[in-house]
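Two quick folds needed for the group meeting slides. Do the first one here.
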Amino acid sequence: MEIEDKRKPTRNLALELVRVTEAAALGAGRFMGRGNKEAADAAAVEAMRLILKTVDMDGVIVIGEGEKDRAPMLFNGERVGNGSYPDVDVAVDPIDGTRPLAYGRLNAIATVAVAPRDTMFNPGPFVYMHKIAVGPEAKGVINVDAPVVDNLRAVAKAKGKKIEDLTAIVLDRPRHKELIAEIRGAGARLRQIPDGDVAAALMTAMPETGIDVLIGIGGTPEGVLAACALHAMGGEIQGKLYARNEEEMARGREAGYDFDRVLTMYDLVSSEDVFFAATGITDGELMRGVKYFSNSARTESLVVRGLTGTVRWITATHRWDKLNEMSAIQY
């Protein structure tokens, strides 16, 4: 008789994980525009940890939040879930876009991803990487090692566009001065964003956003989260670890990290049996943010499953009188 492998996820965990991102968004959303990143992050983490404990899984956080920006964290190695099967790796970003949230800007989201145990890339303390991400039409034509103009030409050709009609999205950072000049020199259109490159990577797989390619140096944790979603959405992401200085480079090489290695989507998450959920905190092209009413709030979430390629949009209404009667935290 065949013995069931209970370590392998067999149900759509994303439909349970969306409760996690909804809770984080509801907790953080009240801090929109109040200029307090730490308080917003603390509210999102508290809500996310509370709901994660109820999910039927034995999870270990591989991609934790807080180490890079000294915020309250769900730390690497923390056990989450209720301890039942399946055994999984967990990636979290309670707020992708803390600054946009703190200053009332667009595209702050709450995210979580799950994959079978030992399938997520663990970047350790090396939290930045060169990245390039595209949607399904341009899958297979990008190369993170190639010159920017070559990638733009390849993406334009794959999508049947002129390069002048292509839109690249880049984090607005001083380190991207040369990159921005190369994109402009190639004749492509350019969107610069202050934060939020998980949302930006996902937008490449959604034609209605008008974003064709994400390029630049951003967070490695965000790269792993985006890879989980793009598995289901049919897109692609590649990356290479980025050292901010010679000391970090030497420390990384001593620890066995290869800064010259191209990390494919399957290096970042080696299983297709992945789950991803995201809920909007502030409005954006990807999804709408939390809307508060007299006795309720409304959220919009994206829920994907890699094994089936199913992408769902979930709009939920949360009643305070019901929710606060049973919740350990007050929303």
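Then this one, please, same format:
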Amino acid sequence: MGNPFPYSDTNKRYHTYSYFLKQKFGSKVAKLSLDAGFTCPNLDGTKGFGGCTYCSPQGSGDFAGERSHSLLRQMQEQRAVMENKWQDTQYIAYFQARTNTYAPLDELKRAYESVLSMPGVVGLSIATRPDCIWEELCGYLQELSAKTFVEVELGLQSIFDVTGETINRCHSYAEFLQGYGMLQSKNIPVCVHLINGLPGETREMMVESARQVGQLRPHSVKLHLLHVLKQTALARQWERGEVTLMEKQDYIETVCDQLEVLPPETVIQRITGDGSRELLLGPMWSRDKKSVMNGIDLELVRRGSMQGLRFCPKAPQ
């Protein structure tokens, strides 16, 4: 019996990012993770200090290039690694570390357009906060998207503001909806980040976050596992016994529940997160990423399920 999920050419019962990229660009496309030297309003005191409790000293850019190197050098270094793995690869420049729309527009333009001039680069992925989206920026990104592929990643993590306060997120769900709406009005693809296992959240809350995000019909979603990393506020809370980490099977079942309530056409850019091996304190089972992904595949088959099976769009108002 074949795979019943329509957005797949493998055994995956969810809409993988690799499938989307292959359909759009016709070849292997890899992301090159960059640190452009930007900061964050949750670091410089504009919104808060210290960042989100789980955020590493690298600003969640632990796999990005070396901050002291130019963007051109970071791209070249990462391409050298990728080209040893795959032939005829195209690339998306991924502005990953910290908040990559938190600068004057002229500065952002110089950074974005400098990497687009490199051979083989077919687009940009820009990670940022929803409270760092504004109309002039969206207008520019709309113009840029007429020339190349552009997607914006918004860190939401949870729809629940009580959780946002617990993790020192320093923006509300209402602010997320405002930023998301501005991007959507310009037809700019948005990837929404959600984290499972945040302090105080139940499985029902995690699934509800996915359900509500699904109603927005985002282009894509990233599902992460909460990692405890060294040198973070979360690590200190965990060491004091204030934080309980998810078990592997609980995570697998939660992700499957979330996939079921997301629209089938929404791209799942990530199904679990990577924690830096040098910084990771837990959960240690997450280091076996392949086992987690296989577990999700098997659970969907066991259920006879797939992405979107329980998705119920809102009636037009």
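Slide caption for protein two: The first strand starts at residue 29 and ends at 34.
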